[in-house]
């Protein structure tokens, strides 16, 4: 009898999409007057060159803006600027809910009530006496 190995199933190789000139562009801008949150960012990529900037308001009230570029020749470069705002940012405090202090309940302690339980009745099984009678077998001879 001859045995032969089953053929191996080879998964097809996944083809990766390759874009030799990737491009994208995005941005956002947040101006929240309730909390004073102010920040923005924008970025653009064209091939291997990325350019962008972002800004935010630091806790000291100055706007920090970072302009950056990245490319294969010069690497990543950033320029940071800090500028005063025309209007001072006032951070609104978060609302606080007040509640009355809880009332302390007066608790009195007492001994647990005594419970009278009836005395258990004792039961015992009656002794079993088996009377066994023994006798010799009746033997008779008949000729």
From TrEMBL:
Pfam families in the cross-refs: Chitin_bind_4 (PF00379)
GO terms under cellular component: extracellular matrix; extracellular space
Annotated TM spans: none
InterPro entries, A to Z: CHIT_BIND_RR_consensus, Insect_cuticle, Insect_Cuticle_Struc_Prot
Annotated region (Disordered), positions in chain: 16-56
Swiss-Prot/TrEMBL keywords: Cuticle, Repeat
Gene Ontology terms, MF aspect: structural constituent of cuticle
PROSITE patterns xrefs: CHIT_BIND_RR_1, CHIT_BIND_RR_2
Listed name of the protein: Cuticle protein
